Every structure is written in C-alpha cells, then in structure tokens.
From TrEMBL, chain A:
Transmembrane segments: none annotated. GO terms for molecular function: ATP binding; ATP hydrolysis activity. This is ATP-binding cassette domain-containing protein. It comes from the Bacteria. Residues 20-258 form the ABC transporter domain.
C-alpha cells in the first residue's frame, strides 16, 4: 500500500532504478502539436501502460525513446543515457538493450523468419562475443513464443497473430533490459490478443525485463499493467493503477473505460 | 488568377523536389563510401535488377532491331545504300537507341519496383525496425539498390544492343542475303571507341538516375498504404523525365569531345 501511494504521488526515486525518464516532451508536425509537455518515468522491472486515443501521439512518444524521432524540446533519458546527446555508435549500443515491438509487427517481408531474427544480431555482435552459430539463439527465441517450426517460412505465410509472435521473438533476441510495445494487440482478435499478453508476461518473468506498453486496449491494460498513464491532449493527464483509474470520476478518464 | 497561383505553386514544388533529390543523392555519396559495406545485399540487388529486366530488355531489343531495319530498308534501297545498313543500324543502336530504350524499360521496371518496395517497407515500419536493430537502413536498402542499378544498367544495355543487332541481322539475312558474319563484321568496323565509351558512360548515369529516383520516392513515402502506389507511379514518371534530361546533357557533352 505504501508503494502505491508513492507511485500515485509520482515519487519515483524512492522505489528503485529509473529506466526511462521523460520530462516535458514536446513534438509537433507543422501546425499539428502532438505532444505538449509529456512526463513519464518507468522503473526497473515494472510494467507501465500508456493509454491514449488513436492519433494521440503514443507512437510518436515511443519513437522518441529510441531516437527514431527527435523531440522539439524536452528531456528523454533511457537506461541512464540522454538519448538526444548520443553519437551513432553509442545510440546503437543503447538500442541493443531495448526491444521494440512495432504496431504492425514490421517483419522484413523479403526474409525468412530465421533471417528476420538474425537481423538484429548482424550489427550487435558485441553482445554475442564468441558466438558463431546463431541458430540456437534463434531457436530459443522462437521457442519462447511457441513457433520453432516456422523458422524457414516467409512472413507472408504466417497469420497476423503468428507474425506478432515472431516480431516479439525478434524483439527479445538480443536479451534486452527494456521492451517497448507499440500496441501489441492491435489488429488481433481477442483470443490471439490474450495469447500475446500471456507471452509478454512470461517473457517478463523469464528475463526480468522492464516494459513500456502503449495501447488503447482496455483489457490489455487491465491484465498487464502495474501502473498506467493516460495520454490526453499531448500530456500525461492521469496516473495510477488500473483499479484507481477505473473508478475515477473525471469524465476524461472515464471515457477510456466506458464500453 | 487561380491558374497563375497554381503555376507558381507547381514551379516552386518542382524546384523543391529537385532540391530534395539532390540532397538525397548527396546522402548516397556520403554513405556509399563509409564502411561497413553491405556486399551481400548488393549482390542480391544486382541479381534482382538483372533478373527483373532481362526478359523485357531482350524482347524490346529484338523487336526494335527488326523494326528499325525493316523500316529503313526501302529508303536505303532507293538511295542504293542498302549495304550501309549494318553501319547505320549499328551506330544508331549503340549510340542512342539501345541505351535510351533499355533505360526507359528499366525505369518502368526497376524504379517502380524500388519505389514500391521501399515505400511499403516505410509504411509498415520495417525501415524503423532496421534502424533500431543497429543497421543503417539507408546503407542497407538505398545504397545497395542505387549501386546495383548503376552497375547493372550498362550490362543490360550491352545485352540489349547485341540482341537488337541480332534482330537487324536476321532481316538482312532473309531479305538481303547478307550472312551474319558479314553483317557483324561491318557493324564492328563501323563502330569506334568514340561510339562505345560515351554510350557506356551514359548508361551508368541512366542506371544511377533510375536507382536514385526509385529509392528517393520509396524512401520518402508518406504515411498510409495509398502512399506506396503513388511512390511507385511517380518514381517511373520522374525517372523517365530525368533520363531524357541526362541523355540531352550526355549528347551535348560528348559532342564537345568529338569536336576536340
Ligand atoms: N512522421 C509524421 N509526420 C507527420 N505527422 C505525423 C507523423 N507521425 C505522426 N504524425 C501525427 O501525429 C499524431 C499522432 O500519431 P501517432 O503517434 O501515430 O498516434 P497513435 O497514438 O495512434 O500512435 C497524428 O495526428 C499523426 O498524424
Ligand atoms: Mg500508434
């Protein structure tokens, strides 16, 4: 109970190492102000869900975390590094500690499943010093998602749910400390969504990763979140556990949970 | 008033596009010389470019050779100059028709292919995924494709030239009783390095233009799947236009050299 109080109060420093710290993040495209001072902190081992309407800038925010987009202003720190002040080599090294699951799976469609999984290992060899045979690593990652038999298939031969699982395997193949999920259940049926969420939980248990999950799927948020942030109008509008937010009287918060 | 405004806007857009394209080309040259090099992917792309265009180049080359010979035959006979057929066909194919036709065919095939491939990779976030995997997507996708097009186009042109000459010699064989050997001997007699070298250099530039515009259009595809079709389409249009501009410049420059 005590820790919960702290979380609600936004006192992060007391409860362990901070993995992601975002302060006053602003980003606009032309006249379209998407993020207007977004703040967030993610602590080690935690599952944090950021929920927001479609088009509210969730993907923009998560892309600022890995340097795929650069913010107009604001401070972004990931795994202790100020992401906007890194040279390419340091940035790539940092990225090898981050797993990223893209919204539409983003498997390379000209490569087999195996080549897709080997791709991140091409440049991040440092992490695998002395490993010449990548096959066992690929197999392990695929076994984690229950798809070891698809190794030699092309992405076009997989169903949407299988693609998402392969993408998840690809995201964890470098044994990241932090995984970023951009709408892990979007475009999937409820049953497949549940499977994906289960996988996310089992991976977290197995590897002890921290996770930032971006979604507009309330069920996903309920199951997986330890803490939630609602992204409304470009800012972190509300913060708390699922139980706290679902009973909130604020109409803006309520809108998320109404069926 | 409205039309005038539209024209101004269009012109502005055109020059902005040229500026963007030049910037993209500069980025290519900067990245192309910086290690690590993606040799394996380059080879794969070379194979793809050749494989995609070979049949088309062969077919069009053959037909152009046939048609050109059939149509000029009566005129040459009228002037009593039909024995000059190999010279005329040889020079026009090697200097101009071969490179231009091959390049146009390839711009339809390669530039649109690059535009669509990179466009769909962009839209489905595959390019972003590459970037976070520590592979420079510009190097891996763009540099290899532009290089492949630049290297393969001269080969395709030479191949197309040969097939066109073969088509022409067939006509001469059946209609004029000229043996293949005689025909090709006369062709090679007529051709000098002054014809071959500029044409080959020109073909490299054609390949570069095709690869560049295809990749440029694909790489800057907007959000949404509609963008992919637009990228493929505008890539062909832009590549074909630029090909003629490059051709004009090439002919202009080589003309200066002839006079020296
Ligand atoms: N590369 C971009 N260029 C222009 N506008 C963009 C770009 N990326 C995102 N946007 C805009 O930012 C807003 C938020 O997009 P996004 O983060 O993808 O939403 P979501 O919360 O659904 O993930 C949208 O209005 C979108 O149009
Ligand atoms: Mg999104």
């Amino acid at each position: 109970m005590e820790t919960k109080e702290k979380i609600v109060a936004g006192v992060a420093e007391a409860s362990g190492e901070v993995v992601i710290k975002i302060k006053g993040l602003c980003k606009s495209f032309g006249d379209n102000q998407v993020l207007k001072g977004f703040n967030m902190e993610l602590r080690k081992g935690e599952n944090l869900v950021v929920m927001g309407k479609s088009g509210s800038g969730k993907s923009v925010m998560i892309k600022c975390l890995v340097g795929l987009m650069s913010p107009d202003s604001g401070y972004v720190e990931v795994l202790g590094k100020d992401i906007n002040n890194l040279d390419q080599i340091a940035l790539d090294e940092l990225r090898s500690d981050i797993g990223f699951l893209f919204q539409g799976s983003a498997l390379y469609d000209s490569m087999t499943v195996r080549e897709n999984l080997e791709f991140p290992m091409r440049r991040h060899r440092k992490k695998f010093e002395g490993i010449t045979d990548t096959l066992p690593l690929v197999r392990e990652a695929l076994e984690n998602v229950g798809l070891a038999h698809t190794m030699d298939l092309m992405p076009s031969e997989l169903s949407g749910g299988m693609k998402r699982r392969v993408a998840l395997a690809r995201a964890i193949i470098l044994k990241p400390k932090l995984i970023l999920y951009d709408e892990p259940t979007s475009g999937l049926d409820p049953i497949t969504s549940k499977e994906i969420i289960e996988l996310m939980r089992s991976i977290q248990k197995k590897y002890g990763t921290s996770a930032l999950i971006i979604t507009h799927d309330v069920d996903c948020a309920r199951v997986i979140s330890e803490r939630m942030i609602l992204l409304v109008d470009g800012t972190n509008y509300a913060e708390g556990t699922y139980a706290e937010l679902v009973t909130s009287q604020d109409p803006n918060v309520n809108a998320f949970f109404k069926k | 008033m409205d039309i005038k405004f539209n024209m101004v806007n269009r012109t502005k857009q055109f020059f902005m596009e040229i500026g963007d394209l030049s910037y993209f080309a500069a980025r290519f040259f900067k990245q192309a010389v910086k290690p690590p090099f993606e040799f394996k992917e380059l080879l794969r792309q070379c194979y793809q470019v050749g494989n995609r265009s070979l049949l088309l180049v062969v077919t069009t080359g053959f037909i152009i050779g046939l048609v050109l010979t059939l149509q000029t035959r009566p005129t040459l006979i009228e002037f009593g100059a039909v024995s000059w057929m190999p010279n005329m066909v040889g020079i026009s194919i090697v200097r101009e028709i071969g490179p231009v036709i091959t390049a146009l065919i390839c711009s339809g095939r390669i530039a649109s292919g690059f535009g669509a491939e990179l466009g769909s990779m962009k839209v489905t976030e595959q390019i972003d995924a590459m970037e976070v995997s520590g592979t420079n997507p510009f190097k891996y996708l763009v540099v290899t494709r532009i290089l492949a097009a630049t290297l393969m186009l001269p080969l395709l042109v030479i191949f197309g030239d040969l097939i066109a000459l073969y088509g022409s010699s067939l006509v001469e064989y059946f209609k004029g009783n000229v043996s293949f050997r005689l025909y090709f001997n006369k062709v090679f007699e007529a051709l000098s390095y002054g014809d071959l070298i500029p044409a080959t250099i020109k073909s490299f530039f054609f390949g570069f233009v095709i690869g560049l515009t295809g990749c440029y259009k694909g790489y800057k595809t907007g959000r949404g799947t509609a963008g992919v079709g637009i990228a493929a389409n505008t890539a062909v249009v832009m590549a074909s236009l630029l090909l003629f501009v490059v051709d004009f410049i090439a002919v202009f420059v080589s003309d200066i050299f002839y006079e020296l």
